[in-house]
Amino acid sequence: MAFSLFTNSCKVLLLLALLSSFNFLAVVCVEFQVGGDKGWVIPPSKNSHLYNDWASKNRFKVDDTLRFEYKKDSVLVVTQEEYEKCRSSHPMFFSNNGNTVYKLDQPGLFYFISGVAGHCERGLKMIIKVLELESPSQSANQTTNSTSSQKSGALPMAGATYSLTSMMIFTSLLGALFA
User: Fold this and answer.
1) How many whole angstroms separate alpha carbon 80 and alpha carbon 98?
2) What's the average model confidence in pLDDT over 75-80?
3) Given strand 99-103, what is the order of strands in its sheet?
4) In what order do the strands lie in the sheet with 93-95?
5) Residue 175 lies in a domain
6) How many domains does the chain have?
7) Considering the domain boundaries, does residue 168 fall inside one?
8) 63: left (phi over 0), alpha (psi -120 to 50) or beta
9) What DSSP element (H or E) covers 67?
């Protein structure tokens, strides 16, 4: 009986040690409301850089999404050259449904313009820089800044994705301990 009690205590201590040494990587995807409560509209003439200013205050990662809300307009993803010229005959993405959600699927620069004549020239355009995937320590640092992202129109999505490899290793060790 004493041996059995000692063995169970050792298992519990070993389990606690394993739990404290694991770094679970949690990647939280965020949905950004483009332009905050104003949406995707022609900016006032005095602030033609409204959307790039908004974008520069946010931190975008792979798998985050952008929600564009608008009336009688459109959203196009274009090349840098087409962005600078404010026109595109062959956009990489087009939507005009008034409530467009666009997933940022890779790191790098994304160029968005309005497809309505004259709107891009009046400032309805934006460049988004999507960052490379982060390490667990960078991800933990970013979590502390989540309230500032929410103030700028960022909404955490419902789920979080956990590192599958870490979960599988942990589950295997747990099974071996209590088998």
Assistant:
1) 24
2) 98
3) 99-103, 65-69, 26-33, 154-162
4) 60-61, 125-131, 108-113, 75-78, 93-95
5) no
6) 1
7) no
8) left
9) strand 65-69
CB 167 within 8 A of CB 160: no
Over the stretch 28-66, which tens digit does the pLDDT of each residue have?
789 999 998 889 999 988 788 999 999 999 999 999 999
Written as six digits, the tokens of 104 are 């940022």
Q: Which amino acid is at 97?
A: N
Q: Establish if 83 belongs to a structural domain.
A: yes
* Identity of residue 122: R
12-21, 86-95, 123-132, 137-146: the lowest-pLDDT one? 137-146
Which domain CATH number covers 148?
2.60.40.420
Q: Residue 147 CA to chain centroid, in angstroms?
A: 14
Q: What is the 3-state secondary structure (H, E, C) of 72-132?
A: CCCEEEECHHHHHHCCCCCCCEEECCCEEEEECCCCEEEEEECCCCCCCCCCCEEEEEEEC
In a 3-state reduction of DSSP, which class is residue 136? helix
The residue segments making up the domain with residue 114 are 28-161
For residue 9, is it within any domain? no
